[in-house]
Queue: 3 jobs
Job 1
Amino acid sequence: ALNAALAGAPAHRELSWTDGAGLTAAVHRTAGPARRLAAELAEAVAQLLTDPRVGEVRRCEAEGCVLLFLPAHPRRRWCVASVCGNRARVARYYARHKEAGA
């Protein structure tokens, strides 16, 4: 299925000159929006599956979060620290203060 999605919108690089940046190579796909999106997603999955660190993929520890992530640091616990991590820290804070006030 991944190979079919990748083949449905093949990518090619197009070189262009830009002011300041010099020569750039942008990736272009020649297909409709749905096929381009499927190919982009299939490419991301293929890159993840072939990454040597695929065994390090973790489930987010936040309650109710279903996301998986590849941690940049071994102690990382949440998919997005500013969202899931913040919710967990706030929940711990309220739990501590609720116990202290009771």
Job 2
Amino acid sequence: MPRTKGDHEARRREVSEAVWRVLAAQGFGGLTLRAVAAELGATTGLLTHYFPAKRDLVAHALELLDQRTAARPRPAGGTGLSAVRTALLGILPLTAEAAATNRIWVSSWDAALADPALSGEYALKYGRSRDRLRDLVAAAQELGDLPPGDPARIAAGAQSFVLGLVVQALFAPEAFPPPRQTQLLDDYLAALAHRPSPRAGGTVAR
């Protein structure tokens, strides 16, 4: 009996879930056709129907990661500096799910750096993120929440700060628990706004 389109889509979803489980457990370094086949309980021959080469598997994994990241629940944005803060908080590994997603992203950097095409895609991805931050910064400046300045430069600095904080939190989660990540971000934003941090000298909110 021939397979229907629905059968094909269901099988592809099963494969995608297996790819995701391998990524969560082993990172991009452990993402191989053999590992995905073992997770799926299938043969590598079946997987080559979906991924003829390792790069096809990596590309699908990145697409899946993008979808999971975009679908992750995020707090309401607010306006002005609050919207900038919310956008940056959404990048940080403040929950178990966000930490798992960030671990996968960071582990994917090696694969992306080794592939010029993927490197270009990553450059565009981070560029789009900076553009969104730039627009939020510009809106905060219009409201008087941030002082005048080049919003693109400020956005690039904010993105660099928060990605650096992500790496530190992943490697030293005990030293950078969620409350401290939030406090450090608030200190950074307070410095941008040229006013004292609302938590300076106080306790960390939980």
Job 3
Amino acid sequence: MTLASPFSISIVAMTILAFLGLPIGHAMIAGSIVYLWLAGLDMGTVAEQLLNGMYTNYIILAVPLFILAAELMNIGSMTERLLRFCNAIVGRFRGGLAQVNVLQSIIFAGMSGSAIADAAGTGKMMQIMMTADGKYRASYAAALTAATAVIGPIIPPSIPVILFALVSDASIGYLFLGGVIPGLLMAGAQMLIVAWAAKRENFPFEKPTPLREIPGITWRALPTLMMPIVLLGGIYSGATTPTEAAAVAAAYALIISVLLYRSVSFRDFYTSVLASARTSASIGMLIAGALVFNYVVTVENIPESIKVLLQAWDLSPLGFLIMVNILLLLLGCLLEGTTILLVVVPVLLPTAKALGIDMVHFGIVVVVNIMLGLITPPYGLLLFVMTRIAEVPIRDIVRDVMPFLWAMIASLALITLFPDLVLWLPRLLGYQG
């Protein structure tokens, strides 16, 4: 492959279009068309790849359904009741409201599957609660919300895990199970950092919830707390596929918000559907562009070439995983996570399989890396989201998020070194990997 080869020119075209502001999905489609034209291949292949990829992958339907479920939870009072429950459990300790932020992300992770949905939903409410009366610095509250939102796509359900399953053909159900312990490990690391900061900066105590009120608060939050059980119970009992479970999640959120809590108007519902459609269309274009570009990558035999190159380095499975961690953490500073999942990861998969690396373990390692990219400067998307929500300079958020980032990188190292942290739960429920 030379600088004047069709593949090199298509990469240059893609990069230029992306820098000029064209959405990355459109840029990948345009670059792929340039490649097919220069290589003298059938231009109709673009449409064929789009149709085959988008309309024969039943799993992709889960993405817009989980997005809709998260939107419906945010417009109803489900989020508010969840925060009251979390505050009743951990709010009484020093820095209790910061611990509430972590706990609500653990619970909310079992519902939305999206870090952005977590930050934009409960994140807004936590920002208001934490900064009221000057209890916490606005930048610290924003940094903590960004860090806790990372947990969302690691604990099931998870949109990034669904996308990994799409490109790897790994089992979604076992990937979901594999994310539970790593997600809880990262949440535990965050709680330790909060406890350390609470003692160092003398964070305030919250007014403790009387014990006699906790049963009532729990009862009112129970329909919300049951959602992860309904969702994951359907998947692991075999009653639903992950895609069908996503539809159940959206329907459950709608029924609870409208019929039980009576907190959603028709205008709210219309707004949430519209927002879900916009987000789904954006992700859909990325998937479409990646499907076409991955065809180009396959024609050029790039994955096999990289596999041969890495085999020449004689890497061990652990050495390869360390290299993948470094590569993905660096790429996460610059690229959007979905792009990495759909374009970069397929190139690495043949080598991972050749080295005998378990696909569930590899998938969780990849997803954790990509989630950390959301809070890694300079591109970290969650940093920009929280900058808009908190209205504070991004440099202040970056300063306060770094202890959480280092703690989660340490958790990633443990997940990489000890595969059983990922594989124990799937194997407990029948996984043979």
